[in-house]
């Protein structure tokens, strides 16, 4: 043991993690310019952190994202790339705005209008600042090796400049326009919502069949009759053929009004009577019909969701009150034909507050996704398949880069979802009627309008009070954090496109698509080469984690109790792209145990060698075990590296865990003790060589404990250590004479003998004799077998003759006889095993019957059926083991 070894017996993550994090920060290595051998780092690797909203604290969804991205960036850094990970936070306009509104209402009973724009915004900024600090602190606890010197905020000055520049450029290209369109309006948030900010809720309502002049038609919203301007029928509907194109006066609760009958292919012949009323001001579908046929609109619902002045005695009512009053009057006047109860339909609600959406016409800013413009190709990273100066549309660009594989999406099945979404993309409404956000860079003076990066000169200009959809600024994220719009920015040249975008699949449409739109348009580049979608984190029963269910694992609590490394491993192992993962305390605790195991293994090595040092040349193997561990280590380096390259973190974690624990610790460390006793001096070198490499392989996944242990080697910090090189190892070749295969046989013999001890309850203190048949090539490793299985007399023979009073068993393909006649009573064992077997078999029968019962399988919850299947499998394994034991007895 080295005299100067200072390594506590037990690993204490609470002490180590903070100290290690501040050492990393001090080193400056999170900033790529400070990395060693910068000139040799030709290839760059960049990730933009999906900026967390400044609305609160980090949850497990953030934690899994941080764990994955930190693993990516650490691997890239160690494998010699210019690795940059840019942090930031998102102002999340509408979310933050409404959060602060809620607090204001709860604590002071005031609305934002009571405070006024300026004071309200100050409140929002204060709130956001506080929230930001909490988030940053939490991120550090997770161990993120992110470049804090480049931290960005979606609404800081640089990003605001980028946003204004972007708006102006798109406006000049004719891609941004102002239009009166029906928008999704939340009467509570007082703002428009993008299509994908609308959620749908199935509701049981009523379907009213109303008498409508010469028609009878069905509607779930009779109050909108006040805004009707047309009736639509299908062009091939014979029933109404004569009426198409004609005008009719329709009697209503406020007197007669005029409608035009139009024939439109969007009408469903099968629905109701085949005729539908058209309210262009308050329905997307109706609005499109009206536009196709040149029919005007009549607005009757205002921004508060109330009936407008033009609704006579119903004015001022909410739409629901209006509906009730109008239905009552219609009944009195004989307009109701009949009412269908329990009519199931989808209600659109605000994704923020759950209020029913009212489609209303409103003057808004839009991005035209179908308008043609001239494509500006990138000089650095041109998009393949499109030429500079070619006429394109935004929709075309978005489709092109994914369809021809320039952006690779993991898991692949999401590619289809993406393309389908782009196919159905409508113009993007980018204005929001809230105060917190990037104010639209448009100024008005009377009839004059000015669009610019900065305010116009002169008096009396007034800026558009609306703000931009939060996804407008986060859509610029991959390049606005790299210095854009300065096209000479070094960062932009080096780090764009980003290498990978890692995020949750729930924001594919809200965010990922927008980044692709913005980057292809502004830079003529893809924003990233790969998209990695992680799944959602769920609880043990597969439920979404939420505050109200009280099933959420708080990342900070988990870190305090088990350490960040344990939490990270629990999130990475079992996690594959697009698949939801389950996270439980037990799972995190088991990885805490693994962290401790790694500590103990390392400590054992450090204490057993004469001197801790780095071994850079592959040590010379002398024994079979040496050759085996070096060959296996070489294979593990190769496989682990491949898993890192392919983002296969679950397989990676399992591979490393199995090798560390199941091979290096359980076998080589044990054998090393024997070898050292025998004076095999190469053993130290091999232990150190494999351990150092293993710690490096683990580092991206569990950075804290590995960094702490690496100090023992005294060669700088692990965060910038060189990735273990895979050298094709002569010993790793295939074939039965290779050391791996040979050592496997040795392992089988020892395992078989250990099983004998366990199954027949023979204490380790009692040596057992063994006769090994036809395996003389292993004879020279008899001392290894003796040490690991505590054998007595070992006999090597080529003749397979069954010995009296001996167990007969197979170790792989090798026959073993273990004379245990004086240690166990064969008859008693037979009857013991026999009766255990009976119990198990009757249990299997019962389970099988249950699972054959169709009624049970069809009606029981899937988890219950699954659990029963698991039990059956377990029982069958047990049955197999007992039968083998019985066979062994002969
Ligand atoms: Zn709302």
UniProtKB/TrEMBL annotation:
<dbReference type="InterPro" id="IPR009008">
    <property type="entry name" value="Val/Leu/Ile-tRNA-synth_edit"/>
</dbReference>
<dbReference type="GO" id="GO:0005829">
    <property type="term" value="C:cytosol"/>
</dbReference>
<comment type="subunit">
    <text>Monomer.</text>
</comment>
<feature type="domain" description="Aminoacyl-tRNA synthetase class Ia">
    <location>
        <begin position="20"/>
        <end position="581"/>
    </location>
</feature>
<feature type="domain" description="Methionyl/Valyl/Leucyl/Isoleucyl-tRNA synthetase anticodon-binding">
    <location>
        <begin position="626"/>
        <end position="772"/>
    </location>
</feature>
<dbReference type="Pfam" id="PF08264">
    <property type="entry name" value="Anticodon_1"/>
</dbReference>
<dbReference type="GO" id="GO:0006438">
    <property type="term" value="P:valyl-tRNA aminoacylation"/>
</dbReference>
<feature type="binding site">
    <location>
        <position position="547"/>
    </location>
    <ligand>
        <name>ATP</name>
    </ligand>
</feature>
<keyword id="KW-0030">Aminoacyl-tRNA synthetase</keyword>
<comment type="similarity">
    <text>Belongs to the class-I aminoacyl-tRNA synthetase family. ValS type 1 subfamily.</text>
</comment>
<dbReference type="InterPro" id="IPR033705">
    <property type="entry name" value="Anticodon_Ia_Val"/>
</dbReference>
<dbReference type="InterPro" id="IPR002303">
    <property type="entry name" value="Valyl-tRNA_ligase"/>
</dbReference>
<dbReference type="InterPro" id="IPR019499">
    <property type="entry name" value="Val-tRNA_synth_tRNA-bd"/>
</dbReference>
<feature type="domain" description="Valyl-tRNA synthetase tRNA-binding arm">
    <location>
        <begin position="825"/>
        <end position="890"/>
    </location>
</feature>
<comment type="function">
    <text>Catalyzes the attachment of valine to tRNA(Val). As ValRS can inadvertently accommodate and process structurally similar amino acids such as threonine, to avoid such errors, it has a 'posttransfer' editing activity that hydrolyzes mischarged Thr-tRNA(Val) in a tRNA-dependent manner.</text>
</comment>
<keyword id="KW-0067">ATP-binding</keyword>
<dbReference type="Pfam" id="PF10458">
    <property type="entry name" value="Val_tRNA-synt_C"/>
</dbReference>
<keyword id="KW-0547">Nucleotide-binding</keyword>
<dbReference type="InterPro" id="IPR010978">
    <property type="entry name" value="tRNA-bd_arm"/>
</dbReference>
<dbReference type="GO" id="GO:0004832">
    <property type="term" value="F:valine-tRNA ligase activity"/>
</dbReference>
<dbReference type="InterPro" id="IPR037118">
    <property type="entry name" value="Val-tRNA_synth_C_sf"/>
</dbReference>
<dbReference type="InterPro" id="IPR009080">
    <property type="entry name" value="tRNAsynth_Ia_anticodon-bd"/>
</dbReference>
<dbReference type="InterPro" id="IPR002300">
    <property type="entry name" value="aa-tRNA-synth_Ia"/>
</dbReference>
<protein>
    <recommendedName>
        <fullName>Valine--tRNA ligase</fullName>
        <ecNumber>6.1.1.9</ecNumber>
    </recommendedName>
</protein>
<keyword id="KW-0963">Cytoplasm</keyword>
<dbReference type="GO" id="GO:0005524">
    <property type="term" value="F:ATP binding"/>
</dbReference>
<keyword id="KW-0648">Protein biosynthesis</keyword>
<dbReference type="Pfam" id="PF00133">
    <property type="entry name" value="tRNA-synt_1"/>
</dbReference>
<dbReference type="GO" id="GO:0002161">
    <property type="term" value="F:aminoacyl-tRNA deacylase activity"/>
</dbReference>
<keyword id="KW-0436">Ligase</keyword>
<dbReference type="InterPro" id="IPR014729">
    <property type="entry name" value="Rossmann-like_a/b/a_fold"/>
</dbReference>
<keyword id="KW-0175">Coiled coil</keyword>
<feature type="short sequence motif" description="'KMSKS' region">
    <location>
        <begin position="544"/>
        <end position="548"/>
    </location>
</feature>
<dbReference type="InterPro" id="IPR013155">
    <property type="entry name" value="M/V/L/I-tRNA-synth_anticd-bd"/>
</dbReference>
């Amino acid at each position: 043991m080295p005299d100067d070894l200072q390594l506590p017996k037990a690993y204490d993550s609470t002490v180590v993690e903070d100290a290690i994090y501040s050492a990393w920060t001090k080193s400056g290595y999170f900033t790529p310019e400070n990395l060693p051998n910068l000139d040799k780092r030709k290839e760059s690797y960049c990730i933009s952190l999906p900026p967390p909203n400044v609305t609160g604290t980090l949850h497990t969804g953030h934690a899994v994202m941080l764990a994955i991205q930190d693993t990516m960036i650490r691997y890239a850094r160690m494998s010699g790339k210019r690795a940059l990970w840019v942090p930031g936070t998102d102002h999340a306009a509408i979310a933050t705005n409404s959060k602060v509104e809620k607090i204001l209402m709860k604590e002071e009973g005031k609305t934002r209008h009571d405070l006024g724009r300026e004071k309200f915004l100050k409140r929002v900024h204060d709130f956001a600042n506080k929230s930001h600090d909490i988030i940053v602190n939490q991120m550090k606890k997770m161990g993120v090796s992110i470049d804090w010197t480049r931290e960005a905020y979606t609404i800081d000055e640089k990003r605001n400049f980028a946003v204004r520049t972007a708006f102006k450029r798109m406006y000049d290209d004719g891609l941004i326009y102002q239009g009166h369109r029906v928008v999704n309006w939340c009467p509570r948030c007082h703002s428009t919502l993008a299509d994908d900010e609308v959620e749908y809720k199935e509701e049981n309502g009523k379907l009213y069949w109303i008498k409508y002049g010469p028609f009878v038609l069905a509607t779930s919203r009779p109050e909108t009759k006040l805004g009707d301007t047309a009736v639509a029928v299908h062009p091939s509907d014979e029933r109404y053929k004569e009426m198409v194109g004609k005008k009719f006066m329709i009697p209503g609760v406020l007197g007669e009004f005029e409608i035009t009958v139009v024939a439109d292919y969007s009408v469903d012949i099968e629905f109701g009577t085949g005729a539908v009323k058209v309210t262009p001001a308050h329905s997307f579908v109706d609005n499109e019909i009206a536009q196709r046929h040149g029919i005007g609109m009549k607005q009757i619902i205002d921004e508060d969701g109330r009936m407008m002045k033009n609704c006579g005695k119903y004015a001022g009512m909410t739409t629901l009150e209006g509906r009730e009053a109008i239905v009552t009057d219609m009944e009195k006047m004989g307009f109701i034909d009949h009412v269908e109860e329990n009519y199931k339909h989808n209600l659109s609600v605000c994704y923020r507050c759950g209020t029913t959406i009212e489609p209303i016409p409103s003057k808004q800013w839009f991005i035209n996704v179908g308008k043609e413009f001239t494509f500006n190709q990138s000089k650095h990273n041109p998009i393949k398949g499109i030429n500079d100066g070619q006429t394109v549309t935004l929709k075309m660009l978005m489709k092109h880069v994914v369809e021809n594989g320039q952006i690779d999406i993991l898991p692949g099945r999401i590619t289809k979802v993406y393309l389908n979404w782009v196919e159905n993309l409508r113009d993007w409404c980018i204005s929001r009627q809230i105060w917190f956000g990037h104010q639209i860079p448009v100024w008005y003076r009377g009839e004059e309008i000015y669009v610019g990066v900065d305010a116009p000169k002169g008096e009396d200009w007034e800026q558009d009070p609306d703000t931009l959809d939060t996804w407008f600024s986060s859509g610029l994220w991959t390049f606005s954090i790299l210095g854009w719009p300065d096209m000479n920015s070094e960062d932009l040249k080096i780090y764009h496109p980003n290498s990978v975008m890692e995020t949750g699949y729930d924001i594919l449409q809200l965010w990922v698509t927008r980044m692709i739109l913005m980057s292809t348009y502004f830079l003529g580049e893809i924003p990233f080469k790969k998209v990695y979608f992680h799944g959602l984190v769920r609880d043990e029963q597969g439920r979404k984690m939420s505050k109200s269910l009280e099933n959420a694992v708080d990342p900070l609590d988990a870190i305090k109790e088990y350490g960040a490394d344990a939490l990270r491993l629990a999130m990475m192992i079992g996690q594959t792209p697009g698949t939801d993962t389950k996270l439980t305390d037990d799972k995190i605790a088991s990885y805490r145990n693994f962290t401790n195991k790694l500590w103990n293994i390392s400590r054992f090595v450090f204490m057993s060698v004469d001197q801790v040092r780095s071994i850079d040349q592959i040590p010379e193997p002398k024994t079979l075990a040496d050759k085996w561990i070096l060959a296996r280590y070489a294979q593990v380096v190769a496989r682990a590296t491949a898993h890192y390259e392919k983002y296969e973190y679950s397989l990676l974690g399992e591979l490393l865990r199995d090798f560390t624990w199941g091979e290096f610790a359980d076998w080589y460390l044990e054998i090393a003790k024997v070898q050292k006793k025998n004076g095999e001096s190469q053993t130290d070198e091999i232990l150190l060589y494999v351990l150092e490499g293993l710690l490096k392989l683990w580092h991206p996944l569990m950075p804290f404990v590995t960094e702490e242990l690496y100090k023992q080697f005294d060669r700088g910090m692990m965060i910038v250590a060189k990735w273990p090189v895979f050298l094709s190892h002569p010993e790793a070749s295939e074939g039965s004479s290779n050391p791996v295969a040979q050592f496997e046989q040795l392992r089988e013999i020892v395992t078989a003998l250990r099983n004998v001890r366990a199954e027949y309850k023979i204490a380790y203190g009692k040596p057992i004799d063994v006769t090994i048949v036809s395996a003389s090539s292993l004879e020279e490793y008899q001392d290894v077998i003796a040490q690991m299985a505590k054998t007595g007399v070992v006999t090597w023979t080529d003749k397979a003759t069954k010995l009296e009073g001996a167990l007969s068993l197979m170790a792989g393909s090798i026959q073993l006889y273990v004379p245990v006649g004086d240690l166990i009573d064969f008859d008693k064992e037979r009857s013991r095993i026999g009766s255990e077997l009976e119990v198990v078999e009757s249990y299997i029968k019962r389970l099988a019957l249950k699972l054959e019962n169709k009624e049970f399988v069809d009606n029981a919850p899937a988890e219950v059926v699954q659990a029963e299947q698991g039990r059956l499998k377990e029982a069958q394994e047990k049955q197999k083991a007992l039968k083998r034991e019985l066979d062994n007895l002969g």
